[in-house]
Design brief:
With about 450 residues, this protein is α/β, with parallel strands linked by helices. The protein has a domain of about 220 residues: 3-Layer(aba) Sandwich (Rossmann fold). The strands form 4 sheets. It has a 6-stranded mixed beta sheet, with helices on both faces. Strands 8-5-6-7-15 form a 5-stranded parallel beta sheet, sandwiched between helices. The protein has a two-stranded antiparallel sheet with strand order 1-2.
């Protein structure tokens, strides 16, 4: 399997090189040169597999000999052995038409663990095989940082620096990152918002000489391995929800800010998974909802919400979807992204908008509606949603139709967002690993939001 850039100026490369490149050297995002097609017979066979077995089969399609199968199997098995639930991503039924896909049973209680446990092990494997140095640089709106750090902390040949917006993540998210006292970990708390952190990362990676000189590698969802790992749980959850009925209408409602999680669902559907609807759930930072409804992609006013991991205006994975929307025309994508950099907006024609609206439903959830959804499901179903999952559930309630089964992606354990839960007078007990964080010292540096300040920190660390 080869990987190419959405902007068409990078020669085709293999899976391992694509993982190491992260952001394509021409500024685009890497995608498989051909999306594998999965037949109905293969789906029937996969339905009987465990999560790790299913992950191995799906990864094999995209790795295609770049990593020996026995090595790939060990990477997969080691990655998901760290999860607290034997199913890895269990599906919990809330009522006749709605289930939640619990993606928070990994080490840091967030869905990012599913990809980053694998990517951390993969980077370690590559470092050993190539006898190479790996310097990981990433930005987080809350969960990616902790999951990435957990995936590589203490591993020989790897250093990791994570940027997070100062004061704009939950306390538990902050503690999960900043209480790690390993020498190969640097936390930078950036004065600004997540979009500032993400911009710095993209601009540093776009400096190809700098990236190569300092062995920079990506941990954010710009890395194609992140997306591929996330496609697995769409297949796994579909099999649980459809229960062997080929006529079942199974929707997925996905809380998203960076477009990575829902793009993984879109990729699974293009592979042949018979998904009925992909519902895109946003919060008040609803640039993606506006795009689906109006065909205009334009950052608006930034809002701090109860679902801070979705407080994002510029979605880093959006370009991957545009590439397929425009028929894999890299020249068209280059022109669109150049225009976005110049004018700050993308407007698509009516025929493209019809395609978008066939691919996705979208709903933006207000802060009050988010809290009300948490309260009502706790009262009526005895199930506690975190604020991001609540956005997905609220969107499902709005957009799902009779006769459909919807799986809402539950992206984090509610203990990570107790500030919001307490606002509706719900008390919860922290899991022991989270409770223990409050007694540990924090290690972080507060820095300004300029490329120069971040570069200075990186040079002294790497």
């Amino acid at each position: 399997m080869d990987y190419i850039s959405t902007r068409g100026k990078v020669e085709a490369i293999g899976f391992v090189d694509a993982v190491l490149m992260g952001l394509a050297n021409d500024g685009g995002l890497l995608v498989p040169s051909l999306i594998p097609s999965v037949s109905a017979d293969t789906l029937n066979q996969w339905e009987k597999l465990s999560y790790s077995e299913l992950a191995l089969e799906i990864f094999t399609l995209f790795v295609d000999g770049d990593i020996p199968r026995e090595d790939l199997k060990k990477l997969v098995d080691d990655s998901y052995a760290t999860f607290r639930d034997p199913e890895v991503t269990p599906v919990r039924r809330l009522n006749d038409s709605l289930s939640v896909l619990e993606l928070f049973h990994g080490p840091t209680f967030a869905f990012k663990d599913i990809a980053l446990q694998f990517l951390g092990n993969l980077y370690s494997y590559i470092s050993r095989k190539n006898n190479s140095i790996i310097h990981i640089l990433g930005a987080t709106s809350g969960d990616t940082g902790a999951s990435a750090i957990e995936g590589v902390r203490g591993k020989e040949g790897i250093r990791i620096c994570i940027l997070h917006p100062h004061g704009k993540v939950s306390k538990v998210q902050e503690l999960q990152m900043t209480t790690v006292n390993d020498a190969n970990v640097l936390n930078l708390s950036v004065e600004g918002n997540f979009d500032d952190c993400q911009r710095i990362i993209k601009e540093l990676f776009a400096d190809v000489d700098f990236k190569h000189r300092y062995h920079l590698r990506a941990i954010n969802s710009i890395n194609i391995a992140r997306i591929l790992a996330q496609t697995v749980y769409y297949f796994y959850a579909y099999f649980q929800a459809a229960k062997g009925d080929p006529a079942a209408k199974v929707n997925f409602s996905v809380p998203t800010g960076n477009f990575g999680d829902i793009f993984a669902g879109y990729l699974a559907k293009r592979m042949g998974l018979p998904v009925n609807k992909l519902i895109l759930a946003t919060n008040e930072n609803n640039i993606l909802e506006r795009f689906v409804r109006e065909g205009v992609y334009e950052p608006g006013e930034f809002h701090m919400t109860y679902s801070p991991s979705m407080d994002i205006q510029v979605a880093s994975n959006f370009e991957r979807y545009l590439y397929y929307l425009y028929g894999e025309d890299s020249q068209a994508i280059s022109a669109l992204m150049d225009g976005f950099k110049k004018d700050g907006r993308i407007v698509i024609p009516e025929d493209k908008l019809r395609t978008v609206q066939a691919d996705f439903g979208a709903y933006g959830v207000k802060n009050d509606e988010c809290l009300a959804t948490i309260g009502s499901y706790h009262k009526e179903n005895g199930y506690l949603l975190d604020p991001h999952t609540a956005c997905g559930v609220a969107a499902a309630d709005k957009l799902a139709e009779a006769g459909e089964v919807t799986v809402a992606l539950s992206t984090a354990h509610p203990a990570k967002f107790d500030e919001a839960i307490r606002l509706i007078d719900i008390e919860q007990t922290y899991p022991a690993p989270i409770q223990a964080l409050f007694n540990k010292p924090q290690i972080q540096k507060v820095v300004g939001g300029s490329n120069e300040e971040i570069t200075e920190q990186l040079l002294s660390f790497f």
